[in-house]
Design goal:
Structural class: alpha+beta
Strand content: 25-35%
Radius of gyration: 17 Å
Order of helices and strands: HEEHEEEEHEH
Distance between the termini: 63 Å
Shape: globular
Number of helices: 4
Strand order of the largest sheet: 2-1-3-4
Largest sheet: 4 strands, antiparallel
Helix content: 25-40%
Number of domains: 1
Number of strands: 7
């Protein structure tokens, strides 16, 4: 009985401290640019220390926000795995720059949890897969030129 209480308490605290992203809907608006999240397979989100969820249209929009605003108390950054539609940690994905809007020729990133899927998407889009830190560097460069 003495060991059951600490184990139960540890499990309870672990469950409470886990960070669960909220699925992105096509009716959500981007926190940074205010545009609708038209393609949920490109969506991203940030969860702050208060548990508030901020949704973004693309991984690039999230990276721009993080680089320009430098938000305090960030508990997690998530992106949608383009292959599965599931939210994954931004740091654990690879990114391929693609044209996300053929009308405007806007470029942004598709996120992939699988290295093989990222490499295949890179070949298909004549691009290379990069990691989250490289996306942040490119966002920093873009914000400095604006």
């Amino acid at each position: 009985m003495r060991t059951a209480v600490p184990v139960a308490l540890a499990l309870l605290l672990g469950a409470c401290s886990s960070l669960t992203p909220i699925p992105i809907q096509s009716t959500d608006m981007c926190f940074r640019c205010g545009r609708p999240i038209a393609d949920v397979k490109l969506g991203a989100e940030m969860i702050d220390s208060g548990g508030h969820v901020f949704k973004f249209r693309t991984p690039g929009c999230l990276a721009q926000f993080v680089q320009v605003q430098k938000p305090a108390g960030v508990r997690g950054l998530f992106v949608t795995d383009f292959s599965t539609g599931k939210l994954v940690r931004a740091e654990s994905a690879l990114y391929v720059r693609v044209e996300v809007d053929p009308q405007t020729r806007e470029l942004d990133y598709r996120a992939f949890r699988s290295v093989n899927a990222a490499v295949a998407a890179g070949k298909e889009n004549k691009s290379s897969a990069i990691d989250w830190s490289a996306v942040l560097v490119q966002a920093r460069s873009a914000s400095m030129s604006n």
